[in-house]
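Posted in: Structural Biology > Protein-Ligand Complexes

Title: Requesting predicted complex, iron/sulfur cluster in pocket

I'd be grateful if someone could produce the 3D structure tokens for the following input. Sequence and ligand are given below.
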Amino acid sequence: MNNLLSIEHLSTHFYTEEGTVKAVDDISFRVKPGETVCIVGESGCGKSITAMSIMGLIQSPGGKVAGGSIRFEGTDLLELGRNEMRTIRGHDISMIFQEPMSSLNPVLTIGEQLCEPLMEHLKLGRKEARKRALELIEQVGMSRPEQILKSYPHELSGGMLQRIMIAIAVSCGPKLLIADEPTTALDVTIQAQILDMLRELKARSHMSLMLITHDLGVVAEMADYVIVMYAGKIVEEGEVVQLFNHPQHPYTQGLLKSKPVLNQRQKELYSIPGQVPNPLELTASCYFHDRCAQCMDICRVKEPALKEVSAQQKAACWLYEEAVVHG
Ligand code: SF4
Ligand code: MG
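-- Reply #1 --
Done. Output follows.
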């Protein structure tokens, strides 16, 4: 199957007074049509920056995509101009964030905000846009759509706002939806409803979903394919069942140990000892070595490459390098 999105050797850097932060450091991955790819990792591992890079939203004066390519249906998004990119964003690729409030305009009604992309990207007239907006509100599982259209953001709950954001994001029928921690700010019941709804929308439209999360419960429920990031790099990736049943990288193994068990009150949640390294102090090494119980000499001085460890799985770890293990 052809890839919808194909990322090769993407690097996104931020240039600070103290030095260069390689927030995303030479990562490659693919998203197929209709597939859900989850990117998982602790905060600061580069997952949101990866999403912002795809969307062309790395705009801070000190940050830029420093290398690689982001091909969407064969076109390198990095070579597009501002206007071409704006057309793709919102039409072919859209994104939702953790905080719906931050993406909605507090002084415009939900109706105005929902109709705008329909009129801009799909060139619908005001009446048609309104009709479509009402349908969308029903599709994201909200009752009394007429009432909702007239509301302002502050009149709705967090869960309702996230539904609205999803309605806006899918309004133009994107081929790829990028969701960055879409349920993190919501309580557990609402989380489950939103995930169900995303799955339904996906099934109906055959869109692909790139879901960013630090929550392995969400990954288990949603993913076809999982990418584990650590300190700007991909340290492991694979099909969800394979990766959950046979995690190979010590970091993935640690993450899976720290996964809360449903319906089981745990006195203490396992957390991986140690801290994510300071991005300004990284040297050639496995960036996880300070926290790894299986660390060997080579791990401190040489970076392991991401390699196939089984048919559906890759890991970047010296444990799987024959030459090291077997002398
Ligand atoms: Fe641990 Fe070494 Fe593997 Fe890094 S490369 S995860 S330090 S064993
Ligand atoms: Mg983030």
